[in-house]
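Predict structure. Chain length: 585.
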Amino acid sequence: MQRNDTPRRDVPSRRRDSEDSWDDGLIARRVTEATGGEQAAVVETRPSGPQSAAPLAYDGPLRSRLDAMRELVGLSRTRLDSKTLAEAGRVLDEAAARRKLSGQHTVVAIAGASGSGKSQLFNALAGVAISETGVRRPTTAAPIACSWSDGAATLIDRLGIPGRLRRRPLQSPEAEEQLRGLVLVDLPDLDSAAVQHREQAERLLDLVDAVIWVVDPEKYADAVLHERYLRPMAGHAEVMFVVLNQVDRLPGEAADQVLDDLRRLLDEDGIPLGEFGEPGATVLALSALTGEGIGELRETLGQFVTERGAAARRVSADLDAAAARLWPVYATRRRTGLSEQARDEFSARLADAVGATAAGEAAERAWLRNANRACGTPWLRLWRWLQDRSELPTGRISLRAQADEQATARQRVEQAVRTVADRASAGLPAPWAQAVREAAVRGSQGLPEALDELAARAGLPPGRPPRPGWWPAAVLVQAAMTLVQIVGGLWLVGQIAGVMAPNLGVPVLLMLSGIVGGPLVEWSCKLAARGPSRRYGQEAERRLREAAAGCGRARVLDPVAAELLRYREVREQYARVLGTGAGVG
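Prediction complete.
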């Protein structure tokens, strides 16, 4: 079906009138008095550019939310795929584009299925037959725009509607005053058999400031309309009109019953209704054919346009919808992060892997061995030396034990990393949990080797352990006890050889004093050495534990903490997008 869009010449006086009243670059159709209300194919295009109009201004809270969404997308690009962020990026782009255009106009689309009478409603509001109507489907193949005031050309350019499909309504001072600032767009049928028609209608639905959904008594409960369009746009209720058309076909109270059922379906779709002063969708019943209810819609639409808040509310609703889609990748209902207990357990596992406890015990034994060398009896030290010499090491067992110990230590390190990664990622949305685990795995590469190197550097210091101040006195006493034994023994030998006068009491007493005194001094030194040796071992263990903890913190905990900090930042930005101003979850 072809439209009569071809411009034809008119008398010069009418052209001058058109130029005086219209300079928006749109095409004008007017009804003249001579035709008695019939459509006149007066079509004119002004060569001049569109009049300038004040751009749209967003309020402070909406600007803050848009800035937060922009920051959120920037922080998330390295963690989320472009498909996840696509809708948020589209909303930001469209909000920026709409902000540059006229804030004095409101773009309202008329959408509906074929046969619902949306083109009739479009013509009834314009006061002239602009959009073609008929029984042939689809009737509306391309969108048509009608503007009630100048300065809307850039807005219509954004919709991609060519100049040949731009119209002006019937010249009526009362109608122009009532609907000043309205740009009405008749969309192609949403259920059109032509795929390009549906795609074009859906594209424009994302760009307009408000939508008038037109339904008829036969298709008002159509599942496609509710599930594909109305239900997903439930958050846009404040910029939606739902019009039950063709009520003239319903007898008696049937119109009220159908209207009540329509309200019920909208409520099931999650669309709040703007009744009793509450914000929500406006639901009306009318007949575009007979004109019943058109005045009420015109008045309601006029008030809606006069408020000039539809564009900002549409952007805010789009922002809410985009934020709702991002909820699974940002929000969590669990407390996240690494507790001090988890950090301490990770450090303890690394310390066990490097053998910090065993190193402390070895240091304590080394201190005690050094004490025995200084304070023990010569005879006991000689016996221990001979015992050590009698045990010849083969080397096979020690090498195998060392290899087994290294393998076990590596397994402990890997288990410690897995455990801390699982605890750090617990409760996080999937992308951020994966990022935390990847950070832990990257940090664990080379960690066992680094811990071995630290263990070698932070282990026992070279040389003998330090000695307390009382050790020289103990060594002197032990030497005196040994000397007493030697003197007593030589005295007895001299008496047996007859060199010295017989006197068993004194040499025996000296020998007994040395024999008993030496072990007694050694035992006393061991008691006195317990405290210092334990402290020395604990200090060695502490140094190794701190070294292992520092290595684990630098390689694993800090990267994990950085990922958790990034998640907290994006979660705070997400909360700003939602308008809560606090953390989510």
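Summary: Confidence is low (pLDDT under 50) at residues 1-50, 394-401.
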